[in-house]
Amino acid sequence: MQYFEYFTPKEVEEIHAATLQVLETVGVDFSYPPALEVLSRAGCRVDGERVYFPPKLVEECTASA
User: Fold this and answer.
1) Is pLDDT at 54 greater than 90 in this prediction?
2) HSE on the CB side for 39, CA within 13 Å?
3) Residue 5's pLDDT is what?
4) 45: which of 12, 22, 32, 56 is 20 to 30 A away, CA to CA?
5) 3 state SS for the chain
């Protein structure tokens, strides 16, 4: 079976960096209050239903997955 790569390693890193920036500056909406509480305790900034993820937290969580 032939293996195809769609992105170069550099492109993958650029996509990851852009994703971290979006999670930190734009955030994600959550409409489930228990999730907002958990994310706040984990170190995310919560503003109403919008959660902003610090890059360090994202990196730590993905590394442990």
Assistant:
1) yes
2) 23
3) 82
4) 12
5) CCCCCCCCHHHHHHHHHHHHHHHHHCCEECCCHHHHHHHHHHCCEEECCEEECCHHHHHHHHHHC
0.70 exceeded by the pTM? yes
**pLDDT tens track for 8-37:** 999 999 999 999 999 999 999 999 999 999
Listed residue (27, 20, 23, 17) closest to 47, CA to CA: 27
Task: Give CA–CA dist 1/28, Å, rounded.
Answer: 38
- Main-chain phi, psi angles of 27, to 5 degrees: 80, -175
Strands, sheet with 50-52, edge to edge from the N-terminal-most edge strand: 28-29, 50-52, 45-47
